[in-house]
Write a structure and sequence with these properties.
By secondary structure, the protein is mainly alpha-helical. The protein has one domain. About 60% of the residues lie in helices and about 0% in strands. The protein contains eight helices and no strands.
């Protein structure tokens, strides 16, 4: 069943309140513009000076969360060469928005969820499932992450994507260094020896 929309409503509600069919000519025409707006809209609040002074990823707990944010992105990029830095940024922004919104306690019967960014959903689910195991563990004790920490970590990774992409989000500059980083982690894991106590 088709519904006629005026051009103003189409522009305001497209891919926000309305699940547009993929074959919609207006969606195809304006999607690149919408994506560029999302990418350009929010520059990271982190400055290079702040990053140099105190990088949150030097903290093991936050680095563990970052790993869980980046792992689904690396997996998706390994499966598809069409997955670019632009898709990474859109996924991270989607996950950030979802984390920021949080789980609403109110149930509104007529409220429809917005369009799903599958990569963003994978990142969001990975964040929600992530738990940090403390070094001294009391059985069953794991540490959960606060909303502010999740947002801070997402912002830090968004900053990295912008830094590596250098304005050209149609490439895979950030993703290539992410692959290298994950390869180094695999090598380190292989090099570790298990020492058995006599």
């Amino acid at each position: 069943m088709g519904v006629d929309l005026c051009s103003l409503c189409c522009g305001l509600l497209r891919e926000k309140e309305i699940h547009c069919p993929p074959n919609c000519t207006f969606l195809r025409q304006h999607k690149p513009y919408q994506e560029k707006r999302i990418i350009a809209k929010k520059e990271s609040s982190l400055s290079a000076k702040e990053l140099a002074e105190e990088d949150i990823l030097k903290d093991e707990r936050m680095a563990w969360l970052a790993f869980h944010i980046e792992a689904p992105l690396a997996e998706l990029a390994a499966k598809s060469a069409d997955f670019k830095d632009k898709d990474v940024l859109l996924a991270l922004e989607y996950a950030r928005k979802k984390v920021e919104k949080g789980q609403s306690a109110l149930f509104i019967p007529d409220e429809k969820p917005g369009p799903i960014n599958e990569a963003g959903e994978a990142v969001y689910q990975s964040i929600e499932d992530c738990r940090y195991e403390k070094k001294i563990i009391i059985p069953g004790e794991t540490d959960t992450y606060q909303k502010e920490e999740k947002i801070k970590c997402l912002d830090r990774i968004i900053y990295s994507v912008r830094l590596w992409a250098k304005g050209d989000y149609e490439q895979r500059r950030y993703l290539e260094q992410l692959f290298e980083q994950f390869d180094r982690l695999k090598d380190l894991t292989r090099q570790k020896k298990i020492i058995m106590e006599p």
